[in-house]
Design a protein that fits this description.
Length: 56
């Protein structure tokens, strides 16, 4: 009985870890695509925080 409990717990834990890692990668991809779409039209006016353009 206890071996079956460990097996069920291990399977559930493996599923949990799989979906956690999947969620991290999916959200990272979504964040990068949002960042790229926002910065694609504003590249020429990006400032470095000091008041000057970063390309200068």
């Amino acid at each position: 009985m206890s071996i079956q409990m460990y097996m069920v717990g291990g399977v559930l834990f493996a599923i949990y870890i799989y979906f956690t890692i999947w969620n991290i990668f999916r959200n990272n991809k979504v964040q990068e695509s949002r960042k790229n779409s926002k910065s694609s039209g504003k590249e020429s006016s990006v400032k470095d925080g000091m008041g000057s353009k970063s390309g200068e």
